[in-house]
Write a structure and sequence with these properties.
The structure holds 2 protein chains of 2 kinds. Helix content of chain A is 0%, strand content 59%. In chain A, the strands form 3 sheets. In chain A, strands 1-2-3-4-5-6-7-8 form an 8-stranded antiparallel beta barrel. A 4-stranded antiparallel beta sheet of chain A has the order 9-16-14-11, with no helix packed on it. A 4-stranded antiparallel beta sheet of chain A has the order 13-12-10-15, with no helix packed on it. Chain A starts with a strand and ends in a 5-residue tail after the last strand. By secondary structure, chain A is mainly β. Chain A folds into 2 domains: 73 residues, Glycoprotein, Type 4 Pilin, CATH 3.30.700.30; 68 residues, OB fold (Dihydrolipoamide Acetyltransferase, E2P). Chain B is α+β, with helices and mostly antiparallel strands. Chain B has 4 domains: 94 residues, Rossmann fold (3-Layer(aba) Sandwich); 68 residues, Dna Ligase, domain 1 (2-Layer Sandwich), CATH 3.30.1490.20; 238 residues, D-amino Acid Aminotransferase, Chain A, domain 1 (2-Layer Sandwich); 37 residues. In chain B, the strands form 6 sheets. Chain B has an 8-stranded antiparallel beta sheet with strand order 14-13-10-11-12-15-22-20. A 5-stranded parallel beta sheet of chain B has the order 3-2-1-4-5, sandwiched between helices. The chains are: A mainly beta, B alpha+beta. At the A-B interface, strand 2, strand 3, strand 4, strand 5 and strand 6 of A face strand 17, strand 18, strand 23, helix 13 and helix 16 of B.
Chain lengths: 162, 487
């Protein structure tokens, strides 16, 4: 069985009592001693390891040896490194928060660096600025609205496209 | 003593105050906003009332009266340093657990408090305000001594701020600052003051009762900061000699006495490690986030004493009876991404496992399953350790950080481990600008081999469990693993 997280593919092969795990040119023998409640006790090449793992859709939060990693499981269909598509002028929320101000409306001409929207989250104000000279093609949010990280806020297009 | 206290706060500090009340046999009333209705601090209290905002003084006072509380604890932040709130609480015949409204007012205004401290003989950062002509700046700079800092009077956020190393650069810096200040704040008034290149933040806890007895409970070194906010605090400070400690403690008492202070307060100093001089920065007229490290090294329960003092009790210890024992460190666990400009991170806490062990204390406002929202400060918990000496405390903190498991939001735990492992930290060389200027850190670019193994095995066992769990003979077995692994 092969699973890809981020850009790393791991292969697990059952060997009876344990598993053989291979990533790149590294191969180890893994035995599961105990699992439950997001905690795993493993023997990796005979060495004891405790890992904490939580799953949230494609995200895997993993803590081992006192360090926490956020891995993203790649579905079989998509090649790793594909990323998600984003149009050049499509601006997304860099963090979850609330839309404090909307300074432009659809169809309005904007200049590069102009503040289009202001987001507020945890005492911080974040100005969403236009990446280029252009026109507001679509405005996806309104003042007071709560937005999630990566949610599309506004789309700016080249004057010629509009 | 009070019968019932309304806690006008949320998160870990509300939980902390509720515990102190319970220990003293006092009933508690929590208040909660819509976003907090299932929060830990609501469960920690005997009663709870909904409010629209932790900043609405009228609603809080009405809630206290409605629940027949006889006192109000403001915690820190929100209305804790609002003199009108303190006054309004008192005029509603409730006791405000904190200093008098007059003390809060006197220390609340930066310019006013600096004037009062100067008058009381407390050292303040040498500087001038209200200068206009360039030759006046030159004269002031010469008197203060280079390097000097020129900054906008209306300012903040480093705008219009210039460090000037020598006289030749002063005129240009003044012009530049003035331009920037006008542009940023619509106000071109400037301040000039002594620049302290490797400034440390060292503060003193003061404690006074309503009968005129005032002591200090020693210092806290709070120089590890990001975006002007403390993230790691410790006591004793590795920089202070017994002589300096005595001098600063005396200055802190002078400052507190100048405003007839009672209850818990903190005098913040800027400390120049090159010349070993210190200057009054400001006073926080409330309980401090980092109060637990003082509790661990002095053996006093500051929150209980706040309550007892507010009820009119005398503080029983003289300065001579107080001492510091061992070393304590606090790390503030924030839901934020240090690799991404410390942007707050929100989400559901999928796992939240606090470390335990001798000398480890966790003051937390969250449990597993709670949702961290963007409505409030992103501090999840405070991890505090106490050990015999500084090296042992650092080791204990490093171990405890490794055992603090938070999944579901990005935290600064790994970042703080890296800070604690740096020689600059071990050597007490961390100034308030160190994180910004000298500390380079990024999380590992590649996931570790072990993390991939653990994630892959979890996916495998979850996938198997759904189909094979029916074959399990003993559903309560602690060795409950899918049969596929046994063979």
């Amino acid at each position: 069985m092969k699973i890809t997280f981020d850009n790393a593919t791991i292969e697990l092969t059952p060997t009876g009592k344990s598993y053989r795990a291979t990533v790149g040119d590294q191969t180890v023998d893994v035995e599961i001693l105990r699992t439950g409640d997001g905690r795993l006790e493993l023997l990796i090449d005979g060495k004891r390891l405790i890992a904490y793992v939580s799953s949230e859709n494609a995200k895997r939060w993993v803590t081992v040896n006192g360090r926490t990693y956020l891995l993203v499981k790649q579905s079989g269909a998509r090649k790793s490194g594909g990323g998600h598509h984003q149009a050049a002028g499509e601006l997304t929320a860099p963090m979850p928060g609330q839309v404090r101000a909307v300074n432009v409306s659809e169809g309005e001409a904007v200049t590069k660096g102009q503040t289009l929207l202001v987001l507020e989250a945890m005492k911080m104000e974040i100005r969403i600025q236009s990446p280029m000279d252009g026109v507001v093609k679509s405005l996806a949010v309104h003042q007071g609205q709560t937005v999630e990280r990566e949610q599309i806020l506004i789309e700016i297009v080249d004057r010629l496209e509009s | 003593m009070f019968k019932k206290i309304l806690i006008a706060n949320r998160g870990e500090i509300a939980v902390r105050i509720a515990r102190a009340c319970r220990e003293l046999g006092i009933q508690t009333v929590a208040v909660y906003s819509e976003a907090d209705k299932n929060a830990l601090h609501v469960q920690a209290a005997d009663e709870a009332l909904p409010i629209d905002s932790y900043l609405n003084a009228d609603v809080l006072i009405r809630a206290a009266l409605a629940s027949q509380a006889d006192a109000m604890h403001p915690g820190y932040g929100f209305l804790s340093e609002n003199a009108s709130f303190a006054a309004a609480v008192e005029s509603a015949k409730l006791t405000f657990i904190g200093p008098s409204a007059d003390s809060i007012r006197a220390m609340g205004d930066k310019a006013e408090s600096k004037r009062r401290m100067k008058a009381a003989g407390v050292p303040t950062v040498p500087g001038w305000e209200g200068l206009e002509a360039e030759e006046d700046f030159a004269r002031a700079a010469k008197e203060i001594g280079y390097p000097v800092l020129v900054k906008a009077a209306a300012g903040g956020g480093g705008k219009g701020m210039r460090v000037v190393e020598e006289e030749a650069d002063l005129a240009e810096a003044v012009q530049g600052s003035r331009r920037e200040a006008l542009h940023a704040f619509g106000d071109d008034r400037l301040l000039i003051e002594k620049y302290i290149p490797e400034a440390h933040h060292i503060e003193f806890q003061v404690f006074g009762d309503k009968h005129g007895h005032l002591v200090h409970l020693f210092e806290r070194e709070c120089s590890v900061q990001r975006r002007h906010q403390k993230i790691i605090e410790e006591t004793p400070s590795p920089l202070l000699t017994p002589e300096l400690r005595a001098q600063m403690g005396a200055a802190a008492l002078q400052a507190a006495r100048a405003v007839q202070y009672y209850n818990a307060g903190t005098i913040e100093f800027i400390f120049d490690p090159i010349s070993s001089t210190f200057y009054f920065l400001e006073m926080n007229t409330r309980l401090q986030v980092e109060h637990p490290i003082t509790e661990l090294t002095t053996g006093l329960d500051l929150v209980q004493w706040q309550i007892r003092i507010a009820a009119g009790e005398r503080f029983p210890y003289s300065q001579d009876q107080l001492s510091q024992r061992g070393h304590a460190i606090e790390c503030r666990i924030y839901a934020e991404d240090p690799a991404n400009g410390f942007l707050p991170s929100t989400g559901k806490l999928l796992q939240f496992i606090e470390p335990r062990g001798p000398g480890i204390r966790v003051d937390s406002g969250f449990r597993a399953g709670d949702v961290v929202t963007h409505f409030y400060d992103p501090m999840l918990a405070k991890l505090i350790v106490h050990a015999e000496h500084r090296d042992a405390a650092i080791q204990k903190m490093q171990t405890a950080l490794r055992e603090f498991i938070v999944h579901g939001v990005v935290t600064n735990i790994d970042f703080m481990q890296a800070v604690l492992s740096r020689p600059d930290f071990a050597n007490g060389k961390v100034s308030t600008k160190w994180v910004e200027d000298k500390f380079n850190w990024s999380p590992p670019a590649e996931p570790s081999f072990e993390s991939l193994v653990a994630a892959a095995l979890t996916d495998l066992t979850i996938a198997n469990r759904t189909s094979e769990i029916v074959n399990e003979h003993d559903p309560f077995s602690p060795w409950k693993i899918p049969s596929g692994f046994r063979n």
